[in-house]
Amino acid sequence: MSKNFPTAELQARLAEALQTPEFESLSVTLEQQELLIQLLAQLHKWNSAYNLTSVRNPHEMLVRHIFDSIAVSPYLFGENIIDVGTGPGLPGLPLAIINPDKHFVLLDSLGKRISFIRQAAHGLGLKNITAVQSRVETYQPEQGFDTVISRAFASLADMLSWCHHLPSASGRYIALKGQLSDAELADVNENFEITATHVIQVPELDAARHLVEIKKL
User: Fold this and answer.
1) How confident is the model over 39-67, as pLDDT tens digits?
2) For the chain, which has fewer Cβ within 10 Å, the N-terminal or C-terminal residue?
3) Phi/psi at 132 (5° precision)
């Protein structure tokens, strides 16, 4: 890691956050905590050259990229998961670190993002990640996924339209949203059912976070 990267400070903040009520349901080992900070260091390093994220400050990255990602973990369904429009592996990479028993496909159309994900997974020794460079509409998996997760789409209707072919018969969609409107929920068509909505509390994050669970009828 870079000498200028505040590893010890970030590790302390992560450990403290994991003791908060918001994260009380998470079980994150010390080794996994170290991997999360190593991931952050790699993202910070690559970001200077490849502009993978607009967030530049490591302390802000910890909240927006690590805390915000692992907050999704309690809502994952099954063992076979795809993160659509993953960008630089968010939330897929942090989720894969703290869920070594699950397999994650991280899908994005941009080569530099997929290159980072592959390099990060290799450097961190993560065996439960497959990085795929493809547009979602042309990606044809061999089998359906238990969880289809995304925060890349402007609307729930768009997500379901583009990702309709991805879940297994019993699979779930998890849509990650900032603000959530009744109009957006009402725009989900009759082929899908919204099974739950959740307000997600993320330590130190001063922004709204919602999670919507949807199944295909």
Assistant:
1) 999 999 998 888 889 889 999 999 999 99
2) C
3) -125, 125
Tokens of 130: 């497959």
The reported pTM is 0.96
- The whole-angstrom separation of Cα 150 and Cα 114 is 16
Rounded to an integer, what distance in angstroms lies between the CA atom of residue 167 and that of residue 143? 8
Domains and CATH numbers, the chain: 7-216 (3.40.50.150)
Contacts of 40 (CB under 8 A, 6+ apart): 10, 58, 61, 62, 65, 66
Rounded CA gap, 44 and 2, in Å?
10
How far apart CA 19 and CA 8 sit, in angstroms, is 17
For 83-119, give one letter per residue: b (16+ CB within 10 A) or e.
bbbbbbbbbbbbbbbbbeebbbbbbbeeeebbbbbbe
